[in-house]
Structures are given as structure tokens and as C-alpha cells.
Amino acid sequence: MLVQLLVTGLALGSMYGLVALGYHITWATSRTMNFSQGHAVMVGAVIAWALVVALGWPLSVGVLVTLVALAGFGILVERVAVRPFFRAASPAWLLSTIACGIIAENVAQLLFGKDARAFPSALTQRPILVGGAGFYPQEVLVPVVGLALMALVQVLYHRSPYGRQLKAVAWNAEAAGLMGIHIERAVMAAYALSAVLAGIAGVLLAPLLNVAPTMGTIIGLKAFAVAIIGGLGSAPGIVIAGLGYGVLEAFVAGYVSTGAREIVGFALVIAVLVARPLGLLGEPPARRL
Amino acid sequence: MGRIGWALVAAAALALPALTANTYYLYLACSIGLLTIVTAGLNVLAGFTGQISLGHAGFYALGAYAAGLAATRLAAPRWVAAVAAVLLAALVGAAVASAALRVSGPYLAMVTIAFGIIVEHVLVEWVSVTGGPGGIFNIPKLSVVGSYWLIAAVAAVALWLTANLRSSAWGRAMLAVKSSEVAAESLGVSAYVVRITAFTISAALAGLAGALFTFLNGYISPDSFTLQTSIVFLLALLFGGLGSLAGPLAGAAALTVLPELLTGLTDYRLILYGALLLISIYWLPAGVVGAIVGRGRPRAAAAESAAESIAAVEPAAPGPDAPSASEPAALLGVERIGVSFGGVVALNDVTLSVPPRHIVAVIGPNGAGKTTLLNLITGYYRPDSGAVRLGGEAITGLPPYAIARRGVARTFQTAQPFDALTVVENVMVGVAGARLSGLTGALLGLPGTRRRESELRLRAQTWLRMLGLAARAEEPAASLPAGLRRSLEIARALATRPRLLLLDEPAAGLSPTEIETLDRRLTALRQQDGPAIVMVEHHMELVMAISDRISVLDYGRVIATGSPAAVRENPAVIEAYLGVPA
Amino acid sequence: MRRSVHTLLLILAALAVPAVMVSAQSKEPVKIGLTAAVSGGSAASGEAIKRGLEIAIEEINAKGGVLSGRPLRLVVRDDEGQPAKGVTIARELVEREKVTAVFGGLHTPVALAQVAVWQELKTPYMGAWAAGTNITRNGQTPNYVFRVSANDDDADKFLTRYATDVLRKGKPGLLLENTSWGQSNEAGLTKWLGAKGIKAVGIEKFNWGDPDMSPQLLRLKGAGADHVVLVANAPEGAQVVKSRAKIGWEIPMVSHWGISGGRFAELTGDLSDGVAFLQTYSFFGKQNERGEYVLKMLKEKYGVKGPEDVIAPVGTANAYDGLHLMAMAIDQAGAAEGAKVRDALENLSTEYKGLIKTYRKPFTTEQHDALNDADYIMVVWKAGKIVPLAAK
After folding, report:
1. Strand ranges (DSSP E) for chain C?
2. pTM, whole model, 2 decimals?
3. What is the mean predicted confidence (pLDDT) over C81-93?
4. Does A111 lie at the interface with B, CB-CB under 8 angstroms?
């Protein structure tokens, strides 16, 4: 039972972590977020389903086109819901991205249909049983791809010169502008990348979760919790928090009760933030006076 | 919105039951009322203090269930059930706030979301008390018309309370904390206490609305209190206009009526709803009320009040409390203080002594640690070593507002007036300082509170006259040019009647004429028995003209201290400034 | 602000206009309301009910409508599964749209919250899905709430009987969705198991959208369950079946009707084989006359390819039969008036050969559920198709 719960928890946790990175990327660049990041996951799964399952495209082509479409979706969200309010002191971006999520979900419902559909995958046909614990190969694929992408994001954002520029935008847009960094382009790129990550998560999760217009809501919310616990500014913090949260959920559900799962999980979120107001690995910004 | 607007709304509300017996319209009006009550509370939190909550459905639920259980299990009368609802929500609100308000921004949003979700799941799981997912039914309910009158009355009271609050010392403190937490604390206002108060008020109102929801429907279940509900609360407030007094009503009406207009469209309904939200956020960044009222200002009231202030009775000349005989020679003693940030030493073994009524200038090249020194004295930074004493008392490590309450006021390198307040209100925050007086009085607008208000205003106007700002008293602080923002900040700091005033580059960005005025004012202040002053400044002419003593900082160390003449001749100073050995 | 008051008045005026226009028409249609979730996570249920109603209404209107020539017209409202929204909609349908009767959707809390409104506004309500026992058994007289759907109490009696008498199993593990539907069944199953002297070895719950049910299954397995009683809708039911395969637990599963949608097979592949469940009606296999007609209409109007493509058959079937019964009651009442139609429903004089069964006096003063455990059948998934099990 322990091993099974651990496997289940890690698969779940890497899912949360992957989606949570999307919050991190736009936050690190623009101090804004797509609050409907979970809906981007859904859009990825739905587009991939339409191309691969409904239209019968080859998987590789379908996924590629999906990710390009998701980049477009991210840019659209940025243009429509974020840029007009960028650096406005108001939380308008929070509401406008929620509005985008409402629209996305209901457009998907109109075009895709209201019931959940299957996304068949060779990796979810038969579980592999190892020493009493079982898992679907797809469940291993999620953390593998997830961790690889997290590493890539970390390198891209924190080690490459371009990434440093993006971070500079967040610290001080004015100064970054003087340094010749194209701020609007940097923020747009962050939103595109963030949506692509969500899209990858969507494609990876589709065979495990079924495809439905409402599939992203809960994942989006828990990923947000994970991003916050880990520290919005810290990719490693988010990865650790994601895995930890997934394992915690599985263990509470397995050893206590499913009913206690959300209560314990979210109480822990509050406890962590009371102890560490900027998340586990969040760095406090220098207090500017 | 003006008196006529409110009167029209009140007339419409009174006439509605006579105009229609259609319970659908009355029920919609009830929904608007409930949403108004919640958003009026949320407006205190988000509109006044600038904190976003996405968990108020949790308080709404606590109120609804407290009332439902009191009415069914205890067969309590309605008013008892309502009081229980308010108390429970307020109590939990205060507890949540004391944890939640350690964090801010999206972190705060997450704590409130988590709270809401926990409440929802406890309602689902605690079957023996809450009835589980099926909820509680057959709660004695009011008729729709009866509910309408009750809800309309409570909504009116809620709006009235928030209006009173806005024009009280508490309301100004809240807006001050929203505009600049740092500056508010420098006047003795504890941002934490102010925020907890705002959070508790908003939780109590949400709880009250929850109780009314129970009386209206006679049935409650967890489905009515989800994250979705919290989002609608916040949307209504932003839709109506954050911080505006009529905003909650306008937003509640819009967000209740809008979905009803779209109701026949079923499949396209929510798409249109989302699109309308998006468009309205574009078009109405200040909400519906902001879009309507926001034009046609500024009003003529400025001139009017200036005249009034001249006619006003002159209060006792402002000045510090009389120094007592036992006061030690040094008012401020900075003793061998040191601090480093991330391994970089910012200040090392710095000692500074300021006698009462003296003006001490701290000069030095950029990056020498001058502002860091002020931040250490006022409690924004904690020293790694050494101590700060004020009138003999150690104040090292105290929070900024506690140090401010002991008689230390300051200005900032970048002036930080409270942009959400008018010029005179800015100074009124300083006059009141930590003494916000009774919250009940503020909410109910009691005569005592009103009397104190006019007193605060008179005093504030005296300071404004002294700093040459009387004519602009009623203008929004945000509209002042840079030079006047600095003057306002000095007026605000002086209004706290400090023993010690710290000025961070008061002459930066001022024209030569303005600097001359500043020189005159500081000199006058000293002659009038004013506070001791520590001034960080680059403008050497000003420094030499008014300082009693000068300390020179370089690379975090004091390299010279003495009279202006002595410092001018000091070879170390010349080297630090000119880069050549003298 | 004056302008905003103006706007508000305009909006209120706009709200009032449709109500005025309707009363001006001649050969006035008789309006039937639907309050169900047609958006969000359970949108498919609302869609299925809507289809059943639309097919029946079209059929009736083609034959001249009700009350000698008045057509029926459907007014659909989205209650989003929220009780407060449901109450608003209930009042709107009756007070503004002037509907004669209303059909209801999947959510038990919404149905419970609306009961008081139907009673107050004297409007008959026909439940087409939500199976919460106390929706119809609500203690009101005269009771305006009727139902053509399962009643959890009866369903649980039926499921318990199957598990103990047919499967001969005595250690049930209950796996329920964490909603009022799950709660209603927890009560029903506990009651009927208790009547046979059995206690569930474990009761586990899951939330909508939960991705993995293996922790719950492991707990039931650990508790020594020899069969699992499942109360779930298709998406979550599919996750249960997948998780069961993952932990390698071969165990008989007996399920409430939530997994009857054709999509369940699509979502699970051959993992669904052998899962037995309760059904009021199935579009698989040989159909009666009405069954063939409804399936034909589903194909024509909604592009349904076959029985495996019918998303939530219980909703469609219940709503279809319910609407026919309601139309008969309106004709029998001789007027589109709520109180008269209610009385007629309790005293239907004509027999109705329906889709699910033949209804003879389906409702009485005491009995407001048209279907009971005698009308249920036990079926099983086999290679993506629903196959009836031997009766009883």
C-alpha cells in the first residue's frame, strides 16, 4: 500500500508541479498570472483530442500543432486580459484572466460537447504491476517529462542571459526598458511559454483523466496552491512543493480519509504561509523605501 | 454619488413592493441586497485597505449555517440567530486575519482561497452538525416580501456604516495603509491592526448576509458557498468600483441582473457573461460608479474650504510637548550600530548623538549608508549589532509604528503621500497618529467622533497653512507636483508632534526658491521650540546654513563629526568627496 | 449615479417586456420549464434531459399539442447545480415565463431548495434525474413534486438484493461520490444492508474530477471487501475502474445507474467488462416501439450515431416519459393551471404505454414516484455494450 500510494502521489504531484511552473514563469517576468492556468491545460487536451482522436492526425503532428496553438492562446490571453492592466496597481488582471477562463470553458463546451471523452493511448491500456503496486506507463511519463521541462525552464530562466533579462523586467520595468529590453515582448513570450507548458500538461494528462471542458479547474487550483507553497519566484521550490503535495494527498486519502484530504491539504497551505510568508523557497524582495 | 442619487435609490427600493407582486423581481432584489451587504464589507477590506480576499464565501457560509442551526436545533428567534451568525463570522474572521495578513498579494489570495475551501469541505464532512452535502432544510423562512424589507434595511445600514467609516480616522488609516504601508507606520499606525480590523468587519458583514440568505431560502447546502461564490463577491465589488461607497450597490445590481438578462441564451450564456466581464473591465477600470462619477471633478470645494480655514479659530500654536527637566542631554543616541545585507556591510560601528532641538545633518557620497541609518533608527531595519536609544529608552528592534508612537517622525527619499486621500486627510492621519479612537463610534458616526473629526481637521489645516498648502487642502494628494508632495510629507510628519524628525533628502528635486523656503521653515521650526532634526541631504549650502552639527558617512563608517566649519576643513571629508587627498 | 439609476430602470423594464408580449398571443403555447445544469461538470445530464423533453414535445405538437390545439413550448434554464440559482430560476420560470409545469435536473440540493417555491407558487414539478429520497417524500400536502426517475431508497434496496441474493456476497465496500447523491445512497444502502444483518466493511468517498481512486480502493481492499457497491457518474466511475485495474484487484462491482451513459465504455475500454449496474432503461438491444422512435430522433436531431453514443440515457428516457405523463395531465385537467394539473397527475385516468414501462395510475396522493424497484433491471457492461442480466 505504501509503495502504491507513493507512486500515485508522485504522478499526481508532478502534474501539479508542471502546471504550477506556468504561474511561476509569468509571475517572474511580469508580476501577473493567468489565474485560469487550469483552463489552458484543458484547452491543450481538447485541441489535441480534436486533432488526434476526432480527425485522426498522427500523434506527433497533432501534439506539435496543439502546442503551437497553445502558444497562440497564451499570447491571446496576454493581449486581451493582461497587457491592458500591466502594472496597473489594481488586481484587474486577476479578474480579466478569470473571465478568459469562463469564456474558454464555455466555448470548449459548445464546440467539444458537454460530456467527457476518452483519449486512447498505448500507455494507458494495461497497468504494470511491480511487487504489489501498479501503475500505468503514462503515469511515469508525466513525471519524467515534467521534471525534464522543469529543469529546462530553470536553465532557460535563471542561467541564460535572455532569462536574466526577463527577470530584470519583473524587478524594475523602467530600468529594464532603459537597458534595451523589449518589455512587452518579454511578457508576451512568458505567457506563450506558460501556456505551452500547460498544453503539454494537458496532452500528458488527457489519457489519464479523460478530456472534458471542466477538467482543468481543480488541477489549476491545486497547481496554484503548489506554486504559492513553493514560492512563486522559485522553480525548484515549486517542483518540491508539487511532489510533496501530491504525495501528501495520496497518503491522507489512503491512511486517513478522502474527506480529510482537501481539509488537511489546504490547512497545510495556510500553515506553510504563516511560517514562511513567501513560500518554502521564496526569496523576500529587498524592502524598498 | 450625490444625495439625489441615494434618494432616488431609496425611493425605488421603498416603492418596489408596491409596484410589483412578482416574487421573481422581489427575489432578485433580495439577491442584490445580499450581495450589496457582502460587497460593502469586502469594500472595507479590498477598497479601503487594498487586501484581496477570495474566501469570503466561507464567512457567508459560517453566517448561514450558524443562523440555520440556531433556528432549527435551538429554535432561537431570528435576531438571536443573526447575532450568532455575525459573532461567529467576526470571530473566525479575526482569527483568519491574524494568520492571513502576514502575507500579501497572491499569497494572501491563496490563504483566503484555502480558508474558503476548508469551510466548504468541513460543511460536507461534518454530517452530524451540518447535514453534509445535503445540507439543512425546513428552516423557518420569511416570506419573499418580508425578506425584502429586512434585507433592504440591512443593506442600507451596511452602506451607511461603511460611509461613516470612510470619513473617520479609521477609514483614513485604512486608505493610508493601502496607499503606503511604510508611510502609515511611520505615523504610528499599525498596518497589521488596521488590516485585521478591516478583515473582521468584512467577515462580520458577510456572516450577516449569510444569515439573511438562510431566512430567505429556508434551505442551505455547501453548493451555495464555493470558490465560485467568493469570486462573484469580488467581481461585484470590482465591477461596481473598488473603494467607492456606491460601488457595492452598483456592482451587486449589475452582477445579479446581468446573468438574468442572458438567461434565455442557455448555451451561449456564460460565454457572453465572460465577454461582458472582460469588456467592462476594459471600459470601466474604476468600476461602474467610477465611470459615472469620475468625470466633472475637481470640484470647487477647494477654494471654499481654504476660505473656511482662514476664518477658522486658531488652535494653540503647534509645537512639541514641553521638554521635561529630567530629559537627558541626548535625545537620540545611536550606539555603535552595524548592519549588513547579504554579506555586504552597509553600516559599521556608527555612532550618532542628537541633543533636543538640534539639527544634525548626515552627509556622504551615494551608497554611504545614510538612508540605511534612517531606516535603522525608525525600525524598518534591524541592526546586527549596537543599539538605538530615544530619550534614554532602548528602541532597538521595535516595529516602525511603535517607534513612531514614541515621538519619531520621518519623510522618505521618494515622497510617499497617501494618494488615495486628499491633502488635508493626509495630514489628519498624522494628527490622529495611533489614536484612532473607538471603532463603534467611527462606524455609527456618533456625535463624539464627529466632534473629534472637526478638531482633527482644524489642526491639520494649521499645519497645511504653515507649509503653504492650505489652498490645496481638498485636492487629491496624487495631483500634487513633486515639490509640494515633499511639503505635504513634512506637514504630515510634523502633525504627529514628534520629538525627533528625520528628513531624507528634503531638498532633492526642489527649485532654488523652494529650497530657500525650506531653509526658512526649518530655521523657524527650531526657533519655535520644534523637534530635533536629523537630515540626510546632498545640498551643501542648505546643510551648512542650518545644521548645528554634521556627521559624514563613507562606506558605512562615520569619518567625521563636528560643526559645519570643522567638517568643511576635515581632510578625510575632502578626500571622500573629491577623491583626492587634501 | 442618476445615469446608473436610469440604466437600472431600463434593465428592469427590459425584463418585464417578454412577459407582456406572451399574453398577447392567440393559440397560446403551453410552456414547460426545465431547470438543470447545462454548463459545468454535469452539463451532459442537463443536455440529456433536454433531448428527452424536446423529442416528446415535438411528437406531441405534431399530433396537435395539448388542450385542443395549443402547442407545448420548452423553456430551458441553466441552474449551474447551485441551489440559490435554482430558486431564482424557479421563480423566473413561473412568474415571468408563466410556465405550467417544470422539469428538474441532476442535482438533489437544487431540487430540495426549489420544493418550497413549487409549493408556494402552486406549480407541478417533475423530477427527471435527481434521486434524493426526500425530494418527493417532503412532507408537503398537497405535494407539487413528482418524479419519473429512480428513488435512491428503492434503488439501494434493489442493489442490496442483487448483491446478497444473486451474487451471494456479504462484505460490501461502498464507494460513493462525495455529494448529496452519495449521501442519500449511504443512508439507503446502510438501511437495506442492515435489514439483512450486514454492515459495510468500508465506506469511501471521492470528489468530482478526482484523478485517481486507488487510495480509496486500497482501503476497501484492506478492510476485506468481497464486492464494491459504486455510486458514481460516468467520468468518475471510469476512474474507479481504471484505478481498480491498476492495483490489480479482481472484485465484483455493483453500481447505481450513474455509469449507464454510453461514454462509460469509451472512457474505460474493456476494463468495464463485468461491471453490473441498475438501469431504468437501456437503448442497447431490442427496443420497444417508443425506444426505436426515440433512438431514431436522437440520430436525426442530435447526430447520435448509435446507443453507444447516447450520453446519459436515463435522463433522456425519464424526461421523455415524464413529459408524456405531464401532457396527459394537462389535457385531463382541461386547463394549463398548476393546481388542476397537479390534481390530474395524482389521478391519471388513461394508461400510457411508455418508453420505460406501461404506466397505470403512476401517481397517487401518497406515491409521487412513478418508478420503483419493480421497474429496475440489472444489466452488465460487456465489450462496450449493455447486456441485461437474468431477472432478479
Report:
1. 30-36, 72-78, 101-104, 125-127, 145-147, 172-177, 202-206, 227-231, 253-255, 276-279, 352-353, 358-359, 377-382, 385-388
2. 0.88
3. 92
4. no
